[in-house]
Amino acid sequence: MSSPEILVLYYSRHGATQKLARLIAEGIESVSGIGARIRTVPAISAVCEATEPAVPSEGAPYAEHSDFEECIGLAMGSPTRFGNMAAPLKYFLDGSSAQWLSGALQGKPACVFTSTGSLHGGQETTLLSMMIPLMHHGMILVGLPYSHSELMNTATGGTPYGVTHLAHADGSAPISADESRLAIAQGKRLAEIALRLRVVRS
Known about the structure:
Layout: E1 5-10, H1 16-29, E2 35-40, H2 66-70, E3 73-81, E4 84-85, H3 87-94, H4 97-102, E5 109-116, H5 123-136, E6 140-141, H6 150-153, E7 164-166, H7 177-201
Parallel strand pairs: 1-2, 1-3, 3-5, 5-6, 5-7
Antiparallel strand pairs: 3-4
């Protein structure tokens, strides 16, 4: 029997959010008996004729709504767009009515993460915007406790609502040591909680 998986779902324009997703997946897979399923969503366009290929040319495969049903937890990330999640991720969530109706995500743990160009560019509001549809799905939100000293000391990204990255306006900033540790810790915490909840429900 294969190990249960946590869905690491993200949209990334310039690669920073994707890097956070991989670190969170590393944290998930540091926990015995669970794996990470990394998926992305395609860009969307206001031009009706513009379409993305069915399979991305590089990076993670595109998510399907069945991933919600098959995984025991969710880590979801997006770059910030005016203090909100990016439209491609919102578009994918908007198509999850069938999973909402069936309760496919109820009782499963979830965490959120983001990347911004500036330190005060809406990191926390973006995280909160991603939490709202997950709460409508009945998910259990998992943050980062202040036992992680990086939250008190970091000069880059990091919030108790979820890990963040300060990319700078041109996206040139690498993931800092603090951000990396927090991302791995967030993935590990999500995996541990998902496994505990799975035992309780079985």
